């Protein structure tokens, strides 16, 4: 039967079926993940090789210095996570230990913050004997996540923790996940799970692309007709109370929430109830509604009132203005706009600035700093954006990052981190080594790259696949943005991600498999 | 700003962003699905162009001829589905109707069957005035699904139904979905949802690949150690009661359940508790455990007892024997097997037959007909399989289908219907026009193609993505297997699938989006 053997090997080659260890598979999971390794990889970790243990039913968190409600909430959440991990999927072998720990001490050295921000300090120290020290509550939160990942149950039921010393801080200060809740409505329940999973990956910005052409799912108190007419269905909306709950849930996890009500394009859903602020096209697109009309007072009146409401719901310092994919043809075809330009000595090239300058000034006056998609800077090169405005780059990365950092804008990378792009298999690897500083520029330019953001555009994503499409794939982005640039080994990351995914699944995140067959 | 326009169009071309109708998007879903069209497409449908209506809160099903518990159960299930559809995502415009229907009459003309089978009659007639006629309960079930799809709510709250006449029967009698519950454990809850979704697509076989190298998740009453040692975790198992519930749930929906406990390869998980029936390899794979050892009585004793238990749990006439990917090297390296061959005047070429002939005879004696993967026929060409044995083809389709139908085996196609193969977007199209008769052969050979089966191999599928990976993509396979070969238009199918997916999502199936943005 030598023919059979040759045939078998041939078929395996043709179909790319892995022949494990070039022999017969044993039973059990394909990969044995690590046990007690951290995701994302910390900046600095030194292990002695010895271990402590801790009884999951007999330990306490002690706040040994400053305390505050955020700290109390975090301690209680992580005490629960740690207790439950004793039954988790991740297991350590029975290991000799040098001592039993009964206390996890949390040392917050400075006054507790209340609101996560772009410049928050997320650094922390963790020692395996059960100590966390950080200068800010945000560092404490990251340290708690780390210590919860170090603790892994052994066969005797005790949790094992290495005698380790960790100093950790993120490489980039902006580590985001964007959700488009307009193309498909994503329920509050799923959004809270997204945030929970983000915290397990030390992601710190939830960029909420709330509205688009297709739908207006935010139920405004000031302009209720926006969602009454612009949402897919009345029940597919977020109330102000939903928003508050989401923002508060995120805040407790050190996650900023930056809303985006994309304008002046991608606004058809506003036109469902307020056609008067839209541009009616003539010519090629006759009768269609184009971008907001920047020559009407009504446009800015409505926007000012609407964003005043939004300002009170989203405490973060930043608002995302959108400004992507604005097709100017409609503006240029509209006779009222043309008359306005003629009366004011302007031309077509001025139209976007009529919108952007006034809208941006209004947003500034409401107390916001600003973000926009790259078109806001590249297509509108004369726009005087306020200092600290952030450009989000989603295509043509190398050239755009070079150009915009030369013009001294802060930038974040989203190109190549679109989560709807799917391949067969555990396709996180393609996201792992995407590098935000991969463009030609000076050190000073590279310093202006403040991070990146994975994007959940929801053409092909709904309620039912949003979580398994995100997790564990976004973990690859999270590690790229947190850990040192030199960490590039897929082979090393794979086994850590196997553990990390098991941990997430066990904690209730609806993650798909990371690599291959097994428990998670 | 002509430059901007050119830039916009260029970017859209580069990124393949659809510019809807070459202009500005309106608000609302991208695609407007059909309203009241059937998936899969019926064999024959003739509409008058007129409509009836029905009050979702004031109608009754009447069994006007034979009756039985299966019929009663189906009527009550569909009465509920139809009542709830009044709030569903699919809507018809307000249409003038000729008459109100208050009764849905169900005319079962012959004695009610109790167990779905390969040769069950699934044909039925449906009239839009509220009549279903079929010769068998299985046809009634398919007709109920059809009538539930015809009924769509109008703005006035009434359900609309066309004055239509439908005669329908499937093109293929075997229309399956295979689930591998060994590589990842899939909970009973998710399996019941899979079955529910299968019924909505008129699929009729649930092929349950229960065990594999990686895990043995079935908790046997006769050999409890098989799962105690071979399952990933003790709680990741199906009890005999779980199996009974799943089989009964399927039966009520006219779905057969064909179990597969893959042998003689893919059996490492059996070896966890019963290494004595495995082959211990020497030489290249020294110390590893290979396929079942066919020269030991213990092997057949255990299998006979085990499959006697299985026989009582799975009433279907067919058992799937597996027989895929058997690498004979280990058999050939084992000195006890070599001694056996020498003493009996046999050689290596006889080993697989020692297993297959005796095992197959035992399975026959237990009252089963048989299925196996193609290797059981191609690699073992002298195996005298019982009449009616079905070959499942998963690679090299054209050559294999030609060869096996020439040898007069019934075949089903699975190649190109592996659901874990993912692309970006609504990637059901690639499954839609895969054709089971696409090989060179006579009409008589083509007649031996009895259907096909989509496969959920679970290397990259777990509890959390199994449903959105399956639905709506498997609907493409379901229509190919039910509807006429001539139905090949993606454009026609797309809008019907948009409706069908909305219907499935509304009924509680965790389906991902079919095509693009919208409510479903």
TrEMBL record, chains A, B:
Residues 38-150 form the Beta-hexosaminidase eukaryotic type N-terminal domain. It is an enzyme of class 3 (hydrolase). Residues 1-16 form the signal peptide. It catalyses: Hydrolysis of terminal non-reducing N-acetyl-D-hexosamine residues in N-acetyl-beta-D-hexosaminides. Keywords: Glycoprotein, Glycosidase, Hydrolase, Signal. The keyword Cell membrane does not apply. Belongs to the glycosyl hydrolase 20 family. This is Beta-hexosaminidase. The gene is LOC101893199.
């Amino acid at each position: 039967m030598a023919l059979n053997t040759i045939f078998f090997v041939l078929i395996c080659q043709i179909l790319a079926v892995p022949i494990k260890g070039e022999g017969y598979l044993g039973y059990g999971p394909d990969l044995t993940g690590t046990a007690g390794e951290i995701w994302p990889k910390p900046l600095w970790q030194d292990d002695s090789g010895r271990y402590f243990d801790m009884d999951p039913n007999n330990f306490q968190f002690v706040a040994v210095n400053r305390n505050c409600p955020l700290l109390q909430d975090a301690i209680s959440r992580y005490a629960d996570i740690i207790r439950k991990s004793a039954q988790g999927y991740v297991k350590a072998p029975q290991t000799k230990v040098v001592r039993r720990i009964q206390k996890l001490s949390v040392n917050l050295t400075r006054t507790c913050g209340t609101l996560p921000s772009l410049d928050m300090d997320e650094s922390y120290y963790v020692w395996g004997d059960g100590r966390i020290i950080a200068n800010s509550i945000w560092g404490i939160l990251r340290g708690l996540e780390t210590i919860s990942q170090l603790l892994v149950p052994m066969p005797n039921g005790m949790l094992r923790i290495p005698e380790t010393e960790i100093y950790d801080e993120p490489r980039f200060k902006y580590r985001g996940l964007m959700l488009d809740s307009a193309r498909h409505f994503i329920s509050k329940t799923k959004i809270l799970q997204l945030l929970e999973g983000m915290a397990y990956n030390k992601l710190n910005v939830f960029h909420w692309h709330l509205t688009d052409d297709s739908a207006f799912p935010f139920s405004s108190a000031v302009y209720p007709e926006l969602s009454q007419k612009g949402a897919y269905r009345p029940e597919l909306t977020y109330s102000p109370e939903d928003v508050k709950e989401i923002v508060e849930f995120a805040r407790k996890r050190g996650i900023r929430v930056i809303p985006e009500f994309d304008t002046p394009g991608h606004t058809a859903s506003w036109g469902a109830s307020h056609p008067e602020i839209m541009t009616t096209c003539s010519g090629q697109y006759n009768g269609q509604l184009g971008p907001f009309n920047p020559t009407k007072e009504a446009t800015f009146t409505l926007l000012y009132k609407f964003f005043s409401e939004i300002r009170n719901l989203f405490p973060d310092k930043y608002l995302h203005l959108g400004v992507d994919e604005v097709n100017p043809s409609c503006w240029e075809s509209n006779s009222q706009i043309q008359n306005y330009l003629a009366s004011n000595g302007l031309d077509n090239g001025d139209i976007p600035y009529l919108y952007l300058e006034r809208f941006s000034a209004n947003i500034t006056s409401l107390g916001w700093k600003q973000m926009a998609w790259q078109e806001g800077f590249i297509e509108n090169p004369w726009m005087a954006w306020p200092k600290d405005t952030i450009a989000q780059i989603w295509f043509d990365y190398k050239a755009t990052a070079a150009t915009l950092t030369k013009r001294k804008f802060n930038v974040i990378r989203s190109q190549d981190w679109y989560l709807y792009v799917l391949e067969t298999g555990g396709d996180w690897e393609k996201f792992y080594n995407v590098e935000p500083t991969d463009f030609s520029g000076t050190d000073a330019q590279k310093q202006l790259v403040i991070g990146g953001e994975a994007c959940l555009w929801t053409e092909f994503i709904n309620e039912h696949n949003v979580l398994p499409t995100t997790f564990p794939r976004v973990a690859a982005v999270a590690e790229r943005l947190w850990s040192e640039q030199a960490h590039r080994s897929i082979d090393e990351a794979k086994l850590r991600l196997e553990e990390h995914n098991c941990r997430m699944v066990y904690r209730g995140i609806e993650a798909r498999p990371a690599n291959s067959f097994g428990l998670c």
